[in-house]
């Protein structure tokens, strides 16, 4: 099941993509796609609907982030062995955790806006994990039981802000629009093996990132187990799980960064595609 949120920013409505790729309105059944509607009882109710009975949404409305009212927006760094190699970083002993500010969250086709002073804005295609049920002290055996579904996240990063402004990575990760999420939330029952999904990112039509979740250092289950020992994970929390090689920072002999007018296109097998145009802030 593919769940979406569509409409103007701040006024999104819940929807579903049917088997023919048609957007159907769900507002007669749920008020929104949020942590409050991601429990298995509600998801089973949605699965039981006949999509043909739902109103078809005309035109091509804007798609917002596929989850509304995201609680914690957690990110795992250096979690692909081949990405760690390209950056020269050591393999971490435990998952590296940082947070993005929720004000960074944007729709999958919204513009990415480079903040004033940005000189090193970079792309990162990532698998997003959406928590569906409250999770504390999970084990490897039951960690995935707490997942509602998966989505694409572009962990856009300003490398100068991230590494040179003193402090943690959050400064370079939390700029407005630096968290495109979607286009849809794919429920976990549609993903046979979350640890074997092809991933890619193109910039201006040139393939930059090619990878697969099978090179993740810490699996989705391991990440959930680890984080849930430290804090309670709540419905609607999102975890991004790291990026494969090919980021601009890692290009040799000289890094390559985004500029106004560039177009990023991201894809993860089974989870759809994102597309953003880059522009400079006013």
Descriptive report:
It is a single chain. With 282 residues, the protein is an alpha+beta fold. Helix content is 13%, strand content 29%. It has 5 helices and 18 strands. The strands form 4 sheets. Strands 3-2-1-13-10-9-16-4-5 form a 9-stranded mixed sheet, with no helix packed on it. Strands 7-18-17-14-15 form a 5-stranded mixed sheet, with no helix packed on it. Strand 1 and strand 2 (13-17) form a beta hairpin. The chain is globular and about 55 Å long. The model has no long low-confidence stretch (mean pLDDT 96).
Proportion in helices? 10-25%
DSSP strand content: 25-35%
Overall 3D form: globular
Average predicted confidence as pLDDT? 96
Could you state the order of secondary-structure elements as H and E?
EEEHEHEEEEEEEHHEEEEHEEE
Rg to the nearest angstrom? 18 Å
How are the elements arranged and paired?
Layout: E1 2-6, E2 13-17, E3 23-25, H1 40-47, E4 73-77, H2 81-87, E5 96-99, E6 105-106, E7 112-114, E8 121-122, E9 125-131, E10 147-154, E11 157-158, H3 159-164, H4 170-173, E12 179-180, E13 185-187, E14 198-203, E15 206-212, H5 220-230, E16 238-240, E17 263-268, E18 272-280
Parallel strand pairs: 4-16, 6-12, 7-18
Antiparallel strand pairs: 1-2, 1-13, 2-3, 4-5, 8-11, 9-10, 9-16, 10-13, 14-15, 14-17, 17-18
